[in-house]
Amino acid sequence: MTWFPLEDTAQMQDGYRKVFRLAGHHLLLLHHDGRSHLLDNICPHAGYPMDAGKVIDNHLRCPMHGYLFNLDNGDCLEGYEGPCNGVRVYALEERDGQLGVEL
Fold first, then answer.
1. 3-state SS assignment for residue 11
2. How wide is the angle at C-alpha 23 spanned by C-alphas 11 and 2, nearest 5°?
3. How many other CB atoms are there within 10 angstroms of residue 8's CB atom?
4. Which residue range is the domain that position 35 belongs to?
């Protein structure tokens, strides 16, 4: 596995969002309610990008069909067009003032 630095920790403020393409992964880094989250940026329901989705409490709503995902574990909590797998979440690490991930 390789560690990829994503952002300076000083940049992580509520409302932060940024999309990354790393090692074949399409990722979304966001900061909400004092916490950073890294997850796949593609909705498992229909393959739509999640970066324009609305954050509600600790959940991200897909902007295409409204599926709702838990930011901590990726579980799909609401779906309107049938069952949906959860979205993959990644463990973030802080190293020398950088927030990053091992892929």
1. helix
2. 75
3. 11
4. 15-94
pLDDT tens-digit readout, 80-99: 777 788 999 999 999 999 99
Contact 36, 99 (CB under 8 A): yes
Residue 50 within any structural domain of the chain: yes
Rg of the Cα atoms in the chain: 13
Query: Is 37 part of any domain?
Result: yes
Instruction: Evaluate whether residue 21 is within a structural domain.
Output: yes
Length of the chain equals: 103
Q: What is the pLDDT of residues 35-53, one digit of tens each?
A: 999 999 999 988 899 999 9
Number of domains in the chain: 1
Give this prediction's pTM. Answer: 0.93
Task: Report the distance separating Cα 7 and Cα 97, nearest Å.
Answer: 9
- Sequence-distant (6+) residues with CB within 8 A of 54 are 60, 61, 63
